[in-house]
Sequence to fold (115 residues):
Amino acid sequence: MKNIMITGASNGIGKATFDAIDKDLFDNIILIDKKNSNYCDQKTTSILCDIAKEDDVKRVFNFLDDKGIVVTHAVNCAGVTGPSKTFYESTLEEFDKVINVNLRVTFMMLKGQAR
Fold:
């Protein structure tokens, strides 16, 4: 079975990826975002998940395990941009958020997807 997971699926690159893929190639399409993607059919499942929260990520993979779905393909494109101000005005907290979402979260998702 071929199953694809797309993170950041409700808008931007994630939504564009979902729109562009040949859906007939996959048995299951799993859309992950903290906003509802409002798309669901027999083979597509939208899961609300704040992937910055480890417990939410674990819940997603437990759900997939319960359904017997193994992720064979993944597009991890959830991310955030930095603050709209100059570099020297940015705070360490703002930097940490960007690093957390764009790197740490991708690591957590890949770890779950690679099982």
Q: What stands out?
A: The CA atoms of residues 10 and 37 lie 4 Å apart. The chain has one domain: 3-113. The two ends are 15 Å apart (CA to CA). The chain has a mean pLDDT of 92.
